């Protein structure tokens, strides 16, 4: 069919949130190794608008939608970059995460991460 497998969009969502944290000067690696916290996915939604095709150039737009207690929600839009900088929306979705310690028990988000993600959610 020459279209990208639907589950790959969830992988692109993960890349988007990893890049969002990195752009803010934070990393998943530091969150896990230094802070002892993880952000497992509790729920994921994806609404497909157009098919991505093999060899398409894509752009992932990611933003923080909610930070409340141990809950963090991200929103995504995946675009195909067309000639002349035109973009076509391929999919949009959300992931909801529950902050956990390394034993997978609910925990609080480290203050630095909480402050940055909350600021992004209100921007």
Provide a descriptive summary of the structure in words:
The protein is α+β, with helices and mostly antiparallel strands. It contains three helices and six strands; from the N terminus they run ααββββββα. It has helices at 8-23, 28-33, 111-122, and strands spanning 37-38, 41-48, 58-68, 71-81, 87-98, 100-101. The longest helix has 16 residues, at 8-23. The radius of gyration is 15 Å and the shape is elongated. The mean pLDDT is 95.
Question: Outline of this structure?
Answer:
With 123 residues, the chain is of the alpha+beta class. Helix content is 28%, strand content 37%.
Strand runs, count: 6
How would you describe the oligomerization state of the chains in this entry?
single chain
Spatial shape: elongated
Structural class: alpha+beta
**SSE pattern, N- to C-terminal:** HHEEEEEEH
- Which radius of gyration do the C-alpha atoms yield? 15 Å
Major sheet attributes = 4 strands, antiparallel
Question: What's the total helix number?
Answer: 3
Helix content: 25-40%
C-alpha end-to-end distance: 40 Å
Beta strand %: 35-45%
Model regions low in confidence, pLDDT < 50 over at least 5 residues: none
- Compute the average pLDDT: 95
